[in-house]
Specification:
Layout: H1 4-7, H2 10-13, E1 24-25, E2 31-32, H3 38-43, H4 50-53
Antiparallel strand pairs: 1-2
Length: about 70
């Protein structure tokens, strides 16, 4: 279940600051620093390098493709 403590760690940090603030590196090696949005990128990114995994015309995308599917 996603709730406040998914993004915030008051018992560890002593406040409601975000759990993740560091820039995030994607599977293709590109690093992004979108400030407060780094917490989102920590979970919402492909777990495979789409530069080599997706070949347009050979992959059929569905609701089961993306950050929650290995």
């Amino acid at each position: 279940m996603i709730h406040c403590f998914t993004c915030h760690a008051p018992h560890s940090n002593g406040n409601f600051s975000l759990r993740v603030t560091a820039p995030q590196t994607l599977q293709n090696g590109v690093s992004h620093d979108i400030k407060k949005g780094n917490i989102c990128v920590a979970c919402h990114q492909a777990r495979r390098n789409v530069d080599t995994y997706v070949d347009i015309g050979t992959v059929t995308l569905s609701e089961h493709w993306g950050p929650h599917v290995a």
